[in-house]
Amino acid sequence: MSFHLCWTIDCESTRKEIGDVNLGENAIRGFAELLEQRNWRGTFFLVPGEVEPFADLLKALSEKGHEIALHLHPDELSSEGPYLGSYSGAAQEAMIRQAQDHFEKHLGTRPVSFRPGFCSANDATFVAMSRCGVRQASASMPGRRMTTAASHWAGAPLFSHYANPHNRFLSGGLDLVEIPISVDWESMIWGGIHPQDLRVEFTDSKNHGFLIEKIMKRQVHEGLPFKALVVLTHNLFRFADTGDFRRTTMLGMMDSMERVARDLKVDTAGTTLAAAAAAFRSAVPFRG
Ligand SMILES: [Zn+2]
To answer: What is the predicted pLDDT for the residue at 236?
Structure first.
């Protein structure tokens, strides 16, 4: 089975502290274009505020096979704080549903893939998602210990798994596939509270290349039935501009993935989160 390369972009250019839709659109268009050059497809995690200004663009992306997914920063919808993991399960469910309604109104479809802002979650989060019809998520950042953002994932599974209905650090029992953001399990940054991850803007393509190789090799050597990388970025960089540093980094990361795959003699597929989760479900059938 192919090594799934899940390129994801959190889209939040309309958030009040940013407020730059031109930049947001440049990033979305450029990110999609670079993936399409290799016949890959990506996942666009959008806060509800992005849906109206980019409705036509998002419909066009969806027609090309990219995935429109939900990203939620609760302060868009609630005055009770910005971190999803500080809310009750019922409140999380209500916000996710409200956001899905907004997508459906403007795009005609409900998102079924989800990532909370700041990867903020508590033990009620996966159940809340599932009750809203969410089928797959990329919510976890294994190793993270960011208490101020209610974003704790120390010891959480590094690789794809079915979520657990009672405890976000455990796996199995809930028919929802979690595909974690790819991290280095040995390198903590930001004062020891955050693992080095595959976010494009974190470093240059050379450094990312080492981590890509390390994470891909481990999955092949462990013989995992389903192998994936999850890269993330934000629509706050000019991916459409030739010569832009983040665009160059992204191109270099894509090259690294293909080089490592050749070395490891595995095929690659640049896919949406939904397509990757479907492949996981066939490789690892759910047993409730
Ligand atoms: Zn975000």
So the answer is: 98
288 lies in some domain? no
Give tens-digit pLDDT for 126-136: 999 999 999 99
Number of domains within the chain? 1
| pTM tops 0.70 | yes
Strands 194-197, 227-234: pairing is unpaired
Please give the distance, rounded to the nearest whole angstrom, from the Cα atom of residue 15 to the centre of ligand 1. Answer: 9
CATH of the domain at 194: 3.20.20.370
> Percentage of the chain surpassing pLDDT 70?
100
73 CA → ligand 1 middle, Å: 6
Residue 126 resides in a domain = yes
Kindly state the DSSP code that residue 171 receives in the 8-state scheme: B
pLDDT in tens, 135-169: 999 999 999 999 999 999 999 999 999 999 999 99
- Is residue 48, in this structure, part of any structural domain at all? yes
Residue-range definition of the domain harbouring residue 266: 3-283
Going from the Cα of 46 to the center of ligand 1, the distance in angstroms, rounded, reads 8
Share of the chain above pLDDT 90, in %: 95
Ligand 1 centroid, distance to 10 Cα (angstroms): 6
Ligand 1 center from residue 287 Cα (angstroms): 32
Ligand 1: centre distance to CA 222 (Å): 32
In a domain, 43, yes or no: yes
User: Given its phi and psi angles, is residue 241 left (phi above 0), alpha (psi -120 to 50 degrees) or beta?
Assistant: beta
Q: What is the mean pLDDT of the chain?
A: 97
How do 3-11 and 42-46 pair as beta strands? Answer: parallel
Q: How far away, in angstroms, is 9 Cα from ligand 1 center?
A: 9
Buried b / exposed e over 260-284, threshold 16 CB at 10 Å, is bbeeeeeebbbbbbbbbbebbbeee
- Single-letter amino acid code for the residue at 129: M
In tens, the pLDDT along 101-118 reads: 999 999 999 999 999 999
